[in-house]
Records
---
Amino acid sequence: MLTLYHAPLSPNSRRVWITLIEKGLEFELVEIKLNGEQFKPDFLEISPFHHIPALVDGDFKVIESLAILDYLEAKYPNPMMLPEDPKDLAIARMVQLVTVNELLPPTSTFFPQFLGLPPGDPEKIRQSEEKISVVLKYFESLLDDRPYFGSNNLTLAEVVAGTVVILLPSVGISLNDYPKLSAWSDRLTARPSWQATQITPEMIQDFRAIVEARMSQKATS
């Protein structure tokens, strides 16, 4: 039995969760509350860097979400979630890596707003918006007449990029200037795997309480 250790608000976790569902695999879902549970000895034996997600398959432990996705694709190749054509494979990989390296860091600037907390530094927000705009334009240019990046079928590019892009409108970054990307986002959110892993207001409120507790501790220390 596969076991996924995750936190529901984490895009890194959600991309693995969605992939497990899309591949029709049986798995156990174990939530790690980021209020200190990630530092407990039992979890550190699985993920010594106290990061989520982590996947356990029998006696084999896999950390880092992209490595987990590669493992799942190699061990459970049906349905195939990476294109075979070299150009299309390169598109899928580029989307994955650009999401991780270029999109996710500036998106984290908006995390306080996502939680309903006061926004951060206006200049940092402006710079982050500019960086995100560059990525969205690039993604728009990679989409052709097929419904997904380099494919007629859902790929690992979707589960990596989609779990970040679909959050942007909730923090005031519109996809209206990117019609192909907007339609792509709508296709993803209509899928059962996205609906099954959807972030709820209760999840947001729970994590906001953790963040506020940390802020209170810092203020009094």
---
Amino acid sequence: MPAVTADTLTLPRLPRLPETTAWRRAATVVKAQKFLEGEGFQVRRPFPGVDLAMADPFLLLDHMGAVEYAPGEARGAPWHPHRGFETVTYMIDGAMQHTDSIGGGGLITDGATQWMTAGAGILHNEVPPQDMVAKGGLFHGVQLWVNLPRTLKLAQPRYQDIGAADARLLSSDDGGVLVRLIAGDLAGHAGPGATQTPITYVHASVAAGARLAVPWPKEFNALVYVLSGSGVVGQEDRPLEEGHLAVLGPGDALTLRGRSAWEVLVLGGRPINEPVARYGPFVMNTRQEIIQAFEDYQAGRLGQIPAAHLGSTVE
């Protein structure tokens, strides 16, 4: 798993928290369901599935892989529109080629993140690079959808390219956990991602027996999703294994411990608490706004496919 590795003994350590801390408990654990997306690649999706109010401001989490593609097997999601939210694509192994209707995009690979604010609307194309299609290879990544509040639904599209070397690297207080802070704040350390909706996004590599304990904003929810391995969450040691998501209850901090080598995402955000109307690639506040998004897409107001890509399929 090449997503940014480092010697944890050389990194800044998170503070040791007292055992009297108000720890968050695992309120719900769900197993990700399998779906086919795009041209037919499989994803594991823990939400939607869990009550969306518990995940707010997050809308969707797609775990892609890990899978070893044979030559000709790699698939992507050809041209399709979005409006009203953000997509955050984090590649752990392999690569994804992204292009769009406003000239943005690029290659996302081995620990890099691309943060796309769709806002008022955009068309984009997410496919494996041609050398991976031709030769095959390991592919492993995650795409997170982050909702936007009503006031930002029609903001101008924008991008952040967060290179693998840009992630803020930290260590747990016991030195057994490598923490990659992609966005938000963790015990006073800031991640490189600039968020429209306040969130924290962490990828942690937890050694067997090691413990991660971090303060967590009271106003944020807290989710733990397992990419691989197994461990426990909360002071009550709730088991959590690959493909499972824990939704944690209220409190001042969260704690988790690895039983084996354990790869987890730790996510949290301030709930937007607004009505959600969603259909396919559009997430707005009302049904009428969804209808308007379809009309704008059909009229070409969400952008046009660049001439060099006109042979590509639009979903």
